[in-house]
Protein: Cobalamin-binding domain-containing protein
Amino acid sequence: MKILLINPPNCGKSIPEQEYGIENLKMIFRGEPLALEVIAGNLEGHEVLISDQKAAPDTLWTDIEAFNPDLAGITGMTCEANWVVKTAEQIKKQYPGLTIAAGGHHASCDPDFFNTSDIDYIVTGLGKLSFRELADAIETGTETKGIPGVAKNSPSSSLSYIPRKFSTADLVNSKAPATT
Structure:
């Protein structure tokens, strides 16, 4: 299965930009999308592309068109949450058959925020196992209900899902991050 992982563009202005007029700080100190790279590294058997909108903010639509994914995972911090919802809405308009999952810090803290008709699944907590199990289930056509850390969206009702329990082994037992 083809999986597109999307890292949102920078949100807002940083303190050095606001207070000191340093305009290029985000490009100088931009980090790798490590969380998505960890997820990608754990998606054995799937073809994965990371669309890093912080590094190349105008490539999302060409990435979707060229890659033609079956599943898109969008991560986001709280300051990026509105972008995630808006982008999922735009993607669903153009690609209604594309399955979309939202994850990241905001999804873990407030999963109900993403309980919209344009987002199909919400992945909470450390997503490497939950997202892999979700991708495998979608690919094989098996039931996604009951995957720990994954909620199937139901905009007309409250979310229901089983939280995934984590231990230090989850941090150690991982494949190397993929840098696609």
The chain has a mean pLDDT of 89. The domain at 2-172 is CATH 3.40.50.2300 (Rossmann fold). The radius of gyration is 16 Å.
